[in-house]
C-alpha cells in the first residue's frame, strides 16, 4: 500500500518529512491536517496519532508519529535512500542522534515559542504572550550560537563536519525557516549575527532543491497575508486617529 503522510505544511516537522520523501523518491500520498481548522483534534485523526500532532504516517498497517522517528523509519525502510541521510556507521549515526535529541528541547522550543507568541498565535485562536516570546527569543539565540560553535565546527558544509546533509540538517533548517513569517527586520536581527548558520541553511536548500522551495512556499504566502493584515490595521488606526482629532476640533 502507498505511504500516507498526515501533515500541515505550516508545521516545521511536517515540511522536513515531506522534503525527505520527495528528495529520496519515496512514493506517498499527502493528506493535509489543517491545524488552523483544528483538524488534528478530530476523532479520525486521533486513530492515527493519539497525541493529535503532525506529522504522522501510515505505512500499510503500521502507524508512526514524531518527526524524528518518522525520518529514521523512512531512511531504513525504503530502498534507495542515500546513506548520508542516516548513516549505517554506528558512530556517525549516534552523532546525528545527539543533534536530534538536542533539537526539540533547544532550537525547536526557542524558535517555535518565539514565532508563535510574536506572530502566529492569533491565527490559532491564541493570545500573544510577550513574556513567553522573550523567553523563546533568549533560547533561540543561545541555540543558534551553539549550532554555529558546536554542530557546525569544522570544514564540512553540514552539521558534524559532513560534506552531505543528514536528517538532522533537514530537521533543524526547516525549524529555522519558520522565522520567514516574521517581519523582515526581525528575522534579519535574529539571523544576521550567525553567518555560518546562514551559509549552512543555503547549502541545505541547494542540496534539496527544488523540493525545499516548493514545500516552503506556504510560509511566504502566510507572510504576505500577515503583512497585508498589518497594513490594513495600521491604516484603520490612522483613520481612526484622524477622525478623533477632527471631532475634538469641532
UniProtKB/TrEMBL annotation:
Annotated GST N-terminal domain residues: 1-82
Source species, domain of life: Eukaryota
Catalytic reactions on record: RX + glutathione = an S-substituted glutathione + a halide anion + H(+)
All copies of domain GST C-terminal, residue ranges: 89-232
Similarity comment: Belongs to the GST superfamily. Theta family.
Species per Swiss-Prot/TrEMBL record: Camellia sinensis var. sinensis
Keywords per UniProt: Detoxification, Transferase
UniProt-recorded name of the protein: glutathione transferase
InterPro entries to which the protein is assigned, alphabetical: Glutathione-S-Trfase_C-like, Glutathione-S-Trfase_C_sf, Glutathione_S-Trfase, Glutathione_S-Trfase_N, GST_C_Theta, GST_N_Theta, GSTT1/2/3, Thioredoxin-like_sf
GO term, biological process aspect, one: toxin catabolic process
Keyword match Lipid metabolism: no
Gene Ontology molecular function: glutathione transferase activity
Keyword Transferase: yes
Pfam families the UniProt entry points to: GST_C_2 (PF13410), GST_N (PF02798)
Enzyme Commission no: 2.5.1.18
Amino acid at each position: 500500500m502507498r505511504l500516507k503522510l498526515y501533515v500541515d505544511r505550516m508545521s516545521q516537522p511536517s515540511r522536513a518529512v515531506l522534503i525527505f520523501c520527495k528528495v529520496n523518491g519515496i512514493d506517498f500520498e499527502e493528506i493535509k491536517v489543517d491545524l488552523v481548522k483544528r483538524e488534528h483534534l478530530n476523532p479520525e485523526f486521533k486513530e492515527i496519532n493519539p497525541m493529535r500532532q503532525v506529522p504522522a504516517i501510515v505505512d500499510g498497517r503500521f502507524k508512526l508519529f514524531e518527526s524524528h522517528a518518522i525520518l529514521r523509519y523512512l531512511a531504513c525502510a525504503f530502498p534507495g535512500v542515500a546513506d548520508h541521510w542516516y548513516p549505517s556507521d554506528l558512530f556517525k549515526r549516534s552523532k546525528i542522534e545527539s543533534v536530534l535529541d538536542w533539537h526539540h528541547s533547544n532550537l525547536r522550543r526557542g524558535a517555535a515559542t518565539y514565532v508563535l507568541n510574536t506572530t502566529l498565535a492569533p491565527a490559532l485562536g491564541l493570545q500573544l504572550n510577550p513574556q513567553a516570546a522573550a523567553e523563546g527569543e533568549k533560547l533561540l539565540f543561545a541555540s543558534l550560537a551553539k549550532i554555529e560553535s558546536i554542530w557546525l565546527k569544522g570544514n564540512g558544509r553540514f552539521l558534524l563536519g559532513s560534506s552531505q546533509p543528514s536528517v538532522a540538517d533537514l530537521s533543524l533548517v526547516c525549524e529555522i525557516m519558520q522565522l520567514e513569517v516574521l517581519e523582515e527586520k526581525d528575522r534579519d536581527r535574529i539571523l544576521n549575527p550567525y553567518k555560518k548558520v546562514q551559509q549552512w541553511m543555503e547549502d541545505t536548500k541547494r542540496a534539496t532543491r527544488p523540493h525545499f522551495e516548493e514545500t516552503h512556499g506556504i510560509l511566504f504566502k502566510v507572510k504576505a497575508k500577515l503583512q497585508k493584515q498589518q497594513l490594513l490595521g495600521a491604516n484603520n488606526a490612522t483613520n481612526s486617529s484622524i477622525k478623533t482629532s477632527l471631532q475634538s476640533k469641532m
